[in-house]
Amino acid sequence: MGTRAWALLLVLCGTIFLEGIDVAMMAVAIPAVRSDLGLTTGTAAWVMSAYVLGYAGFTLLGGRAADLLGRRRMFLLWLTVFLAFSGLGGFATEGWMLIVARFVTGVAAAFMTPAALSLITTSYEEGPQRNKALLVFAGTGAAGFSLGLVIGGLLTEIGWRWVFFAPVLMAAALLVPAVRLIPRSDAPPARRRTFDLPGAITAAGAMLLAAYTVVRLEHGLHAWPLTLATGLAALLLAAAFVAVERRCPDPLVRLGILRKSQVVRADLGALLFLGAFFGFQFVVTLYLQELRGWSSLQTAVALLVMGIDAVLAPTLTPRLVARFGNARVIVGGFVLAVAAYALFLPVGMDWSYAMMFPTLLLSGLAFALAYGPLTIAATDGVTESEQGLAGGLLTTATQFGSAIGISAVTAVYGLASTGSGPEATLSAFRAALTVPVVLVALGTLISVVSAREARRAVRRASQVSSVNASHTSAKPAQRSGGISSWK
Q1: pLDDT tens readout for residues 168-207
Q2: DSSP state of 386
Q3: CA 202 – CA 60 distance, rounded (Å)
Q4: What one-character DSSP code corresponds to residue 32?
Q5: How far, in Å, are 118, 212, 266, 348 from residue 380 at the CA level?
Q6: Polar residues: which segments have biased composition (predicted)?
Q7: Backbone angles phi, psi at 223, to 5 degrees
Q8: Cα(147)–Cα(25) distance, rounded to whole angstroms?
């Protein structure tokens, strides 16, 4: 890749880094925010959940909007919105102001991230060049989250409002070169299209209710009728969305893309992998801070090794993909994740950091092997006109995965907390740690199926090539025989 291509890639990767660091810093800063503004526990929880609702609720719509309205336009517009509302959050004096700011910031990320991903998949040639760009993109996002834990701890010591102002400075630093580097040729289709408003409304409604249902899983059996009601409402709206799309001449989402089995498996694999990763990280953070008494900064530094994928994803993973194939590398990543999380199941009250280190290292290595190749698989073979949609589906899967992972471990922890005292708390943590193991075990099965399908596809292609070669070699002989007979 040339200098301009690398510069464009850095800008686009900067957005996923911004998104990752923003989420991580907020997770570290929320106790200080709650204390300073006098927020109730419920309000503090909504400050965190509002971002997830906005992000997960509008990602599918955001991905398709990039295809229909122009990727450059959507990227620049929503990066600006992200900048503005992150800054407004820094000036908040009431809980509701923070909730609104975080919700709109999540919506902005829902439009901005799929646009950035689709700009990569349409700006770089399919094959090794695009694969490397996508692996760098995936690694940068994980690095943002890992570094965000440390940076968030440092900024919170200065003042929690800097957790909101720092993303403003980063977004501004990305916006200026993005205006120059993103080609203006990236425009919406020349053919005039009607915007599928009923599809957009039903899709956004279904995704918002589904995200809210997932967030409510954290409450376990408490107020379960409301959780069940929102889940059923989400399913009804999803059914309405499918009915609308089948009848619409210009659908928001062409349902045929869901017939691409490799795309569906990649999205489901990403959902399970991210769910396990963030669920595990959430439990470990609680274990270190609540049970072991570590500070937020000590915890962040301890977890920093999980960000090793930021180095390995653009360096080691492309070589492994070139040698063993995308599907096999994904399987390797899931197997490593199963081993990593299983090693932490017998965690003790006085485990040293040396005993935790293998799990933290292996989980970071697993992320480097699995997430980038899953991103490649989720966009491979999709037409250029639907790359935004493919990116939106993948981002939706990852957002729901992270929400499901955190909600599931929280629910299991709550159900397993049957007593008081350190030993009872440790037992509840161990129960919660089974959730990441189960998620990556399911992901391993799916990835094995994908690997088998990939091998079959290679064999079929090889057989077709052999047949074509035999026909080609046979034709001259047939012509020669015919001429000899004629003579």
Answers
A1: 999 999 999 999 999 876 555 545 456 677 888 888 888 8
A2: G
A3: 11
A4: H
A5: 12, 31, 10, 43
A6: 471-487
A7: 55, 40
A8: 9
